[in-house]
Write a structure and sequence with these properties.
By secondary structure, this protein is α/β, with parallel strands linked by helices. The chain is built from eleven helices and ten strands. Helix 4 crosses helix 11, helix 5 packs antiparallel against helix 8 and helix 6 packs across helix 8. The longest helix is centred in the last third of the chain and has 33 residues. Bound molecules: 5'-O-[(R)-(carboxyoxy)(hydroxy)phosphoryl]adenosine and zinc ion (ZN).
Length: 344
Amino acid sequence: QAPVLILGIETSCDETAASVVLRDQSGQGTIRSNVVRSQLDEHAAFGGVVPELAARAHVEWLDHIIAQAMREADIALTDIDAVAATAGPGLIGGVLVGLTTGKALAAALDKPLIAVNHLEGHALTARLTNGVAFPYLMLLVSGGHSQFVLVRGVGDYQRWGGTIDDALGEAFDKVAKLLSLGSPGGPAVERAARSGDPKRFRFPRPLLREDRLDFSFSGLKTAVRLQAEALAPLSEQDVADIAASFQDTVAAIVETRSRQALEQLARDYPGLPQRLVVAGGVAANRRLATALETMCAAAGAELVVPPIALCTDNGAMIAWAGAERFALGARDGFDVAARPRWPL
Ligand code: KG4
Ligand code: ZN
């Protein structure tokens, strides 16, 4: 198969992102450019992402971000072989901005359009960064999703379990909010936790005794809130200790579940390498990564975590997922719809 240059566009949440990825004959990917503009400032005063503001910022910035991605890749738009854009799941206003821009570019350049599932972007990133072969076990932990998935091939995903309430990133964001740590919550909690005592509070670990690969984080979040209320007004040390105790609890929960998922992998697919691929924004958390590293080392399994910049939302993962689908002959029509909800 001839090498292809794919433009990837990502606008499903609060990152306006564009990237050019090259997929060569052997199926290997190279990132030629990867431009991300975070909307942190737009949403800072509101303690979370405001959908309408996000959509407007995407409108304002996307053309510039795409132009910059072209400059950094040192190519012209006409050099692109296909345009990939996130079509969901996500905040619908933002998704519409990116998908409509993708359609317009594809039409103007007379090049194919690939509508990409954002979650598929996260799921396939480890193939771009680490060349991981199918099938593999993935733990996807992002702002909207927390699940174990057996990635059997492009478009072929088997869900093994996941959260029954809040996503893990959402739990981080809510805990950050109730500790007044600002947004985005995950990095803020991680920062605060550095000077905290993770053993000061013992928070619940819902579902952990049950033999299933599911998560529940809403009870944990409530326990954190009750603890914060009981101690109010919180000293800086209280905040750090709560953050550290919460983070350690989460790490223990995810570590246990991931060990069980690897055990299931060994049972059901004895010939496969013991490997856990982690994807999504929460994979940027060092405490979590360390817990998973220790567990995998003890279990004789390989842990694959893409570089942080490719775990959080970006255009390269969309370009790459588009490239993988393009290589299999996928093309989308200009009538393809934006989807606020779109399970893997
Ligand atoms: O994958 P992502 O960038 O966007 C979604 O598709 O949701 O994930 C964003 C989520 C947010 O909830 C954010 O708080 C969390 O990932 N996150 C982190 C860290 N960095 C980002 N959570 C914990 N620790 C971090 N260092
Ligand atoms: Zn994401």
